[in-house]
Amino acid sequence: MEARVRIGCSSWTSPAWWGRVYPRGIGDGERLGLYAGLYDTVEVDSTYYREPSAGLTRRWAQVTPPDFTFSLKITRELLEPKASPDRERLEAFLDAAALLGPKEGPLLAQFPPGFRPGRNEKFLGAFLEALPPGPRYALELRDPGWFSGGPWERLQRCLTDRGMALTWSYLTYVTVPRVRTADFVYLRFIGDHTTIPEAQHGETRVDRSGILREYLPALSEARDSAREIFVYFNNHFAGFAPASVNLFRETLGLPPIDFARNAQAPGEGSQQRLSGL
Q1: Which of 47, 84, 191, 233 is deepest in the core (most CB within 10 A)?
Q2: Long-range contacts: 250-254, Cβ < 8 Å, 24+?
Q3: Would the pTM count as exceeding 0.90?
Q4: Architecture of domain 4-263
């Protein structure tokens, strides 16, 4: 059976989307519903900076279609190296995520570039050991030292044994091996935060169609053997994530998403508001 491919954006709250994806004048809380009318998945960036409350994740589930999925970033404070992982806070995060029910997608542990093997490998092992079975987990590492020699051998073995995915991240400063360690694929097209600063978001600034094509062989192989493939685009990748999604869909032979149809409708207000977005 061919893997299902879910393609979405890293967050639904970009200010650059006003007038392009969302009509001006609507409430902040209306954006998720409009986004979920276009895409079937989203990577939640806000949970990287602040743990979600139970009430918030329940409301996210309530205002999205049955087949929608959320991939939550694990809060960065839980990823900071210390003597041992904060199991109590990690459990609270996982409990809140679980309230998404069947809409809970993979949970992403995004470690920063300064998280390196040698000094941080012990903590990484303890952190992965602290993650309970049940949810799907994806791991993002940004230092090249993880992808060669002993650290790479140990990392592959550790992730494969636990069924956790190594995130295939496109970053301009490190090459991540496209090796599958789980029954799903987690692919992030990030770029960097300097080539296209936030002030320039809102339209495609860099042609990265060639980069998208580079991932086709690995994705083609994964579609024949994986259960699901999650693909997320950041505005920093080329300037405007919705346009990048459509370019990638075209590369895969899929129809584009008419994201501009939302922006053409006048904002009429909403009966339902989501706090904390």
Answers
A1: 233
A2: 251/209, 251/212, 251/213, 251/216, 252/5, 252/216, 252/219, 254/5, 254/7
A3: yes
A4: Alpha-Beta Barrel (3.20)
